[in-house]
Amino acid sequence: MGTSFDTRAGADPSRVQALEEKVQELSKRLQEIEERTPEDRVAIVVFSGDLDRVLAAFIIATGAAAMGQQVSMFFTFWGLSVLKRGTEFSGKTLFQKMMAIMSPASSLSLPVSKMNYFGAGAKMLRAMMKEKNVSSLEDMIALARELGVRTIACEMSRDVMGIKQSELAEGLEPGGVATFLADSLKSRTSLFI
Amino acid sequence: MSQSFDKLLDARGLNCPMPLVNARKEVGKLDPGQVLKIIATDRGSIADFQGWAKIAKNVELVGQETESADGANVYVHYVKRTA
Q1: What is the side-by-side order of every strand in the sheet holding A70-75?
Q2: Inter-chain contact B16–A62, Cβ cutoff 8 Å?
Q3: Which of A79, A144, B10, B25 yields a CA-CA distance of 20 to 30 A from A85?
Q4: How far apart are CA A141 and CA A151, in angstroms?
């Protein structure tokens, strides 16, 4: 047991200095590693505007938030329909108007990814969910807000598709790819839905 | 044996992820050391509560039971707030 700390090290200043440098180097490296360790975060890209897919995204988001994870949801392209509260036509180009006509006006008119049949499939799924007492998509969206899920709307796709800020719900954060990556790189789980 | 608890949450009839979400809200209202009893009919809640307790730092799953009543199963979870 005689090999504990070398109390005579003090007698050798160069050795003490070498040790101090080593400790400094190690704590610096530890700090770097800690900065790269994932946090209790989940990042989700909602690209799809299909009711079933979006539901899955919100179930994961609210479940993760309940488990104590900081959740970020990035809505882009078709996913932006989820955040819409209505359609406006004024001030849009011809293509943007056409896009507006053919896109859902809000989460209430999202199609399902399979067997949609002009919206009948979506209505059927909603009825079946209600029958089984599963929360509706709109309840889930409100719940996500309540649980502090960060909701980010992709600025670029919003602009391309001609969706005006006034067509989207309030309280959204505008953002881009780096906004997503900044959260995603610190997350344990990243999903693209 | 029956586990003691401080608060009861009835999550019967609710489906994923609501039993977990509501439990999380109720646990937040407890003091550290107190136990929440959750009654659910969602079979997935067994694994869900185990997963939650494994990941979350401030909760501990102190007991789980399956009770049968009128041919239907009821899943009971006891979650303790640890911090």
Answers
A1: A173-175, A150-154, A70-75, A41-46, A189-192
A2: no
A3: B25
A4: 10
Contact (CB, 8 A) for B27 and B79 = yes
Q: What is the ipTM of this complex?
A: 0.76
Q: How far apart are CA A51 and CA A109, in angstroms?
A: 9
Q: What is the DSSP letter of A78?
A: G
Check CB contact under 8 Å for B21 and A63. Answer: yes
* Cβ contacts of A185 within 8 Å, gap of 6 or more: none
pLDDT digits (tens, 9 = 90+) for B10-53: 999 898 899 999 999 999 999 999 999 999 999 889 989 998 88
- Locate tokens 């107190």: which residue? B34
Amino acid at B53: A
Domain ranges of chain B: 7-81
Q: Is A143 on the interface with B (CB under 8 A)?
A: yes
Active-site entry in B15, B16, B58, B60: B16
| Structural domain spans, chain A | 10-38, 40-192
Residues 6+ apart with CB under 8 A from A92: A100, A162
pLDDT, tens digit, 9 for 90 and up, residues A22-42: 999 999 999 998 888 888 999
Establish whether B75 is a catalytic residue. no
User: In this structure, which topology does domain B7-81 adopt according to CATH?
Assistant: Translation Initiation Factor IF3 (3.30.110)
SS3 assignment, position B48: helix
Q: Which of A104, A106, A129 is nearest to A52 (CA)?
A: A129
Helix axes B18-29, B45-55, angle to 10 degrees: 50
Domain over A40-192 is classified CATH 3.40.1260.10: yes
Nearest 5°: the CA angle B24, A54, A39 is 50
Selected residues 4-63 of chain B with any CB under 8 Å from a CB in chain A: 13-18, 20-21, 23-24, 48, 51-52, 55-58
Give residue A32's identity as a one-letter amino acid code: E
